[in-house]
Amino acid sequence: AHRCSVGACESFADCCKNTKQKSLNITSIATLAVFITLISVSCGKKATNNNPAASEIEVFENARKAADMGTSITALHRIIVLDSTQSWAVDSLAWYYYFFTQNVDAAEIYNTLALKNKPEDVGMNEIRAKILIQKRQDTSGIALFEKLWQRTKDYTFLYNISATHILTGRVQLADSMVTSILALNPVPQGNVRIEVSEARSRQQIPVNAAFLYLKSYLMFLGNERQQAVQLVQRCLEIKPDFILAQDMLENLTQPRQQQGPY
To answer: What is the pTM of this model?
Structure first.
């Protein structure tokens, strides 16, 4: 999870806001292990003896298993040069640049190339929405998330919309959205994919726990500290290893004068 020096923040609230902007960052959304597995499946189908990029694919496979980001990215570039039909390598570069190196400009280049080949791909459109928001094109990013929600009914996209509203100061709109989702009966099933950018990971969090976390943060912003504590504790009852909720609870329960790194 993200940690920042409290000494660099003017107040506890500023620290939490700064933390949230990085760890809630719609800058969304990937677990290294999951992506390694997905890329591995793709590569296994591509690496044949007749493939001009076979040796570089092997280099890439070894590098990704070792979580060597630099070598992985270099190998992906070489694969594309050697064999332009390896479209999975273009997709992978979009993922690597966005989630692992946080190079939004490079991610945008490869994301654009990927979408030319697969304009309806959900994963590539998710990255597109995140890139738009990173580039302060909030309206376009939210509109794309809304389209993805309509197509998939994946609550991850509603979570991202709510989080974007919070990060851009539209707190009342976010609160209305989060409250309405928490009021649904029965409770929505499935998970929300939540990124922890500093840890280069993505957790699968039950829908109810994910939106309780957002509600807890909104309560904190409204100076309702005790209610925020109760809500984040409920999150952790549902998902004890929820990293962002663990960090939130730590911040909310430690004495202000004894705040350590966050």
So the answer is: 0.78
